[in-house]
């Protein structure tokens, strides 16, 4: 029997509410600034009352960009980020699942060595791999392309390791039954492994989508044409240096727009995300 303690419940709820307020307040300030004029958004301290220019500001950043900085419209940048995030997430999951499937269910010489070679890549920081990777992408003519933005980021040792550990928990009797029924490896993967892995795939999709959406360093090297800027680089370019005035209302509107897609993915897939982390469905 669980003992209820009203005082502890009240304290825990107060702590949670305080945490939500601390996290949400900067987002609210950004939203308020995105509804104001340039002059109002630049005032210090900034007003916490929403302005009357919300539709005007969001329409401008989505369709025409800003008037004082040479940056592609936010709609274009969000499209680039969306395509890149989806390609990276789907590519990582597909490659990782097939790699883990081969490591677990196929018997071939050096299987353990290949696994540890994949696992050891986790110890290499991105900065170590970025120069040779850029050289390969450049030689293949993949600069300023979706392929250049996504393909080098599709391999994932982390996802491969997680899928391998999950596949090891699948009873061997299922594989044996599939062999008796005459199912080949692909049939076994499609009819048995994939249904069991669905919640894990959805949980990883959320993580990988956010990872791909928030990419900054790699696109900074690959994208030299502003039409291929993802949203992360676009926000940085909006904060112009030198003598150019920063349109903070447009910057904040861009920030709010940049938070919407990953936020919607988390909200829509929250149920499967949590279930994939805590329930194996076996």
Description:
α8 (157-168) packs antiparallel against α10 (185-213). The protein has 2 domains: 6-73 and 233-256, no CATH class; 74-230 and 260-278, MetI-like (MetI-like fold, Orthogonal Bundle). Helix content is 70%, strand content 0%. It has helices spanning 6-34, 38-41, 54-63, 74-105, 111-120, 126-139, 146-150, 157-168, 172-180, 185-213, 217-222, 231-238, 248-268, 270-278.
**For this structure, what is the CATH class of the largest domain?**
Mainly Alpha
> What is the CATH superfamily classification of the largest domain?
MetI-like
Overall geometry: globular
> What count of helical segments does DSSP give?
14
CATH-assigned fold name of the largest domain: MetI-like fold
The domain tally reads 2
Query: Distance N terminus to C terminus?
Result: 29 Å
Mean of pLDDT: 83
What is the strand tally? 0
Radius of gyration: 24 Å
Low-pLDDT runs of 5+ residues are none
């Amino acid at each position: 029997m669980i003992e209820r303690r009203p005082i502890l419940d009240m304290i825990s709820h107060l702590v949670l509410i305080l945490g939500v307020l601390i996290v949400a307040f900067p987002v609210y300030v950004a939203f308020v600034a995105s509804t104001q004029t340039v002059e109002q958004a630049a005032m210090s301290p900034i007003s916490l009352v929403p302005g009357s220019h919300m539709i005007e500001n969001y329409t401008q950043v989505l369709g025409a960009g800003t008037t004082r900085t040479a940056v592609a419209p936010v709609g274009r940048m969000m499209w680039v980020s969306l395509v890149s995030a989806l390609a990276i997430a789907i590519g990582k999951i597909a490659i990782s699942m097939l790699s883990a499937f081969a490591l677990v269910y196929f018997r071939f010489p050096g299987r353990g060595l290949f696994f540890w070679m994949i696992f050891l890549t986790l110890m290499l920081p991105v900065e170590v791999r970025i120069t040779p990777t850029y050289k390969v992408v450049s030689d293949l003519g993949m600069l300023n392309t979706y392929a250049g933005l996504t393909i080098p980021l599709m391999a994932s040792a982390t996802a491969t390791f997680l899928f391998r550990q999950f596949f090891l928990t699948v009873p061997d009797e299922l594989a044996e039954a599939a062999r008796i029924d005459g199912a080949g490896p692909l049939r076994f993967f499609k009819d048995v492994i994939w249904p069991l892995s669905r919640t894990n795939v959805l949980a990883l999709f959320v993580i990988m989508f956010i990872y791909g959406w928030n990419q900054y360093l790699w696109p900074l090297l690959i994208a030299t044409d502003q039409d291929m800027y993802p949203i992360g680089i676009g926000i940085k370019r909006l904060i112009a240096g030198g003598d150019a005035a920063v349109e903070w209302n447009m910057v904040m509107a861009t920030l709010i727009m940049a938070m919407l897609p990953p936020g919607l993915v988390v909200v829509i897939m929250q149920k499967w995300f949590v279930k994939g982390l805590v329930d194996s469905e076996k």
